[in-house]
Amino acid sequence: MSHTEKPHAIRTRIWREEAEPDNPFATRAAYCHGYDVYGEMLGRTRWVDMLFLLFRHEAPTGQQADLLETLAVALANPGPRDASVHAAMCGGVCGSTAASSLMAALAVGAGQFAGGREIYLAMQAWQECGCDIAAWRQHFSRPDETSGSIWPKPEHAPGFDPHGVSTATPVKQALACLARSDSAKYLPWLQQNLSALETAAGCPLALSGVAAAAFADLGFTPDQGEMLHLLLRLPGAAAHALEQRPLGYKNFPFGSVELENETTGEPA
């Protein structure tokens, strides 16, 4: 630290504040990467513009903002069968706090099956393989290296559905819509080479694979894509948690469990 630097200074390139003249603890103006948030951006800027600016450190083009907004709609609600949403629903039906329900969704939705970590790994593959089908085949055939990592070895090709029989309709619809973006490079290539990639991966494409390609097309790093994926899936988790709260556990979906007697095989 230089002798002119103030102690305990907040080091950030993202945000700068100017204080009110009569109160050093109140903000007069706030700037995000040089843009006046409250004086200029409000009323002129979409939420996805702000997201892009925060993560990419620059304002998006119109095409980039449209692509991110379309992706955000596709990810907003994974649905009640998704493990992260189901976790939030469990919190809601038990009367947990709002924060607890969202933290449950984040914890369950952070892993390597349709979660944030899967996005990270799939984006790493895009960085490594790009639009080279031979590189993708080699990538899928190479054993995963997890030494020194807290994460277990992935049990399937990231971005693909290990339980799928064929590409799900919403996945194909999302890919077709996103691939039309003029700012996309990976998404159109993914659509054109989908059959070959699915054969190499040994399973059909998942929505996480589409999202990873879209994040890569938008110029996000794997770390940024992982974080955004966690964030963009929270609206559905929140809505489903709130819906379950007044219904009570007796009306909770997927709640019945059939137990069998180990000796007779009859229902317990």
The tally of beta strands, per DSSP, is 3
How large is the share of residues in beta strands? 5-15%
Strand adjacency order, main sheet: 1-2-3
Question: How confident is the prediction overall: mean pLDDT?
Answer: 91
| Unreliable residue stretches | none
Please give the radius of gyration in angstroms.
22 Å
Could you estimate the helical fraction of the residues in percent? 40-55%
Number of spatially distinct domains: 2
Gap from first CA to last CA: 69 Å
Would you give an account of this structure?
The protein has 2 domains: 15-61, no CATH class; 68-142 and 155-244. It contains 13 helices and 3 strands. It has helices spanning 37-41, 47-56, 62-75, 83-93, 98-108, 116-129, 133-141, 169-178, 186-192, 194-201, 207-217, 222-232, 234-244; strands at residues 15-20, 23-32, 35-36. A hairpin with a 2-residue loop joins strand 2 and strand 3 (35-36). Helix 4 (83-93) runs antiparallel to helix 5 (98-108), helix 5 (98-108) packs across helix 13 (234-244) and helix 8 (169-178) packs across helix 9 (186-192). The model has no long low-confidence stretch (mean pLDDT 91).
Structure, briefly:
This protein is mainly α and 268 residues long. Helices cover 49% and strands 7% of the residues. Helix 6 packs antiparallel against helix 12 (222-232).
Any descriptors?
three-stranded antiparallel beta sheet; 268 residues; 2 domains; mainly alpha
